[in-house]
Amino acid sequence: MSITLKQLTVLVAVVEHEGFGAAASALGVDQSSVSHSIAALEKVAGASLVTRASPLRPTELGRALLPHARTAVASTRAIESLVSAHQQQPPTGTVRVAASPTVSHRMLPRMLKQWTAALPGVEVRLFEGDDDELDECLSSGVVDCAILIDPTTTPPGALELLRERFCAVVRTDHPFSGLEEVGLPDLLDDPLLVSAGGCEPQIRDLHTRCGVRYEPAQRVREISTLLSMVENDIGVAIMPSLATTLLPDTLTMVDLTPELHRRLVLTGPLDRPWHPQVANLVSVAAAEQGG
Known about the structure:
By secondary structure, the chain is of the alpha/beta class. 44% of the residues lie in helices and 21% in strands. The protein has eleven helices and ten strands. It has helices spanning 5-17, 20-27, 31-45, 60-86, 101-106, 108-118, 131-139, 184-187, 200-210, 223-231, 276-290; strands at 93-99, 122-128, 145-149, 159-171, 181-183, 192-195, 218-220, 236-240, 251-257, 261-267. Strands 1, 2, 3, 4, 5, 6, 7, 8, 9 and 10 form a ten-stranded mixed beta sheet that branches. Helix 6 crosses helix 11 (276-290). The longest helix has 27 residues, at 60-86. It starts with a helix and ends with a helix.
């Protein structure tokens, strides 16, 4: 008995959707078909690949197989898209894009609208992740492309979307509110609150540039928690300017000095061929920039 692409596709779907029923809905098949595919794959493997608890999780062997399964499924989708293009058919397929919450909230709605208008046959599915998760999502095959934050290496064809400035986040009744800019040493008169899942590496680098010790008073995971703490006068924060739309009326942004920026880059994976429609998404985004 050999492993089939269908089995690998079902394994990926079951893990991503954390259940047999949800995977069946996503794949457009009945749940018994999903159960049969997983059972057949586990028979070949000689071991369980997923737990049957809720939420479902991959076993140790399942986790080891998953990156290869994702690569196989992604490569098959790319081949199908290439064949369609060779046959001069309109662009079709599903492209999965990863982005951070601040990018998703501010940039992605506009970009999704542009992509839908230019590529009506291409379905774009969004995956949100913290800044430090995006590289892994892309390299492991969870997504086909991503808007990366300050990537150290970018493959040919990648597109820089924006150089975004960081700002101080303070209450509207804070003494710095209404100023054109505030220096980092002055800002640190208040306790610094940091999102551990966001831009901490850039903020740490800024402290080094200023010769100031990096000593955040609190490190939290969720942006909503961070903003709530600033709102309740527990401290101040540093965030990229795109996050301005996330702020409640009680908070405001002030430009930070010395200036700190981050690069947002739309790219496919570095270590394998891109899904053909990723290049189309990049082309549409580039055309909108030029327009």
